[in-house]
Design brief:
Helix 2 runs parallel beside helix 4 (73-82) and helix 6 (97-106) packs antiparallel against helix 7. This protein has helices at 2-9, 15-33, 50-66, 73-82, 91-94, 97-106, 113-128, 133-147. It contains eight helices and no strands. The chain is an all-alpha fold. The two termini are 36 Å apart.
Length: 157
């Protein structure tokens, strides 16, 4: 959903189109934040930090517009309405280290193929799609099953 805002704002907006784009973005993001437009995954394969990165791009573009000499007071007001609606892009939301570790485990040569596939489909792909609580429960159950046997391959992980 943030891609829509990014496409609308980031780039070369003409001065006359800018106010309209900012107003539409503010309204759209407000509707998302208040639940008027439901957010859901479309099944695309993205890293969990994708929304934070897009938010950062949008924020930087808003700051660029804000600092331009020809920015109108109405545009400044619209920008101020957009800022609090953007997802956070703090370091904890942009880190990819846990996913890199899971990917590395899923691609090791000393793990049986069926286990690698299970790790990939139960953990890695779900995290790419922003795992829901039921995915975390499934991951916990998979981990409990694998670690039950002390001689299992997991001792090498």
């Amino acid at each position: 959903m943030l891609e829509v805002i990014r496409e609308l704002l980031v780039g070369n907006l003409e001065s006359g189109d800018r106010l309209e784009a900012l107003i539409f973005s503010a309204i759209y993001l407000k509707w998302i934040n208040t639940g008027q437009i439901p957010c859901f995954e479309d099944g695309s394969h993205h890293r969990p930090n994708r929304h934070a990165e897009i938010s950062r791009l949008i924020f930087c573009e808003l700051e660029r517009i804000y600092c331009m000499k020809d920015t109108s007071p109405k545009e400044v007001l619209a920008i101020r309405k957009i800022h609090p609606c953007l997802p956070s892009f703090k370091a904890k939301f942009t880190a990819s280290v846990p996913l890199t570790r899971i990917r590395d485990i899923a691609h090791r040569g000393d793990i049986p193929h069926d286990l690698k596939q299970e790790i990939k489909h139960t953990i890695q792909n779900k995290l790419h799609q922003n795992a829901s609580p039921e995915n975390l429960v499934a991951t916990e159950a998979m981990l409990a099953r694998i670690t039950r046997n002390p001689d299992n391959i997991v001792k090498h992980l």
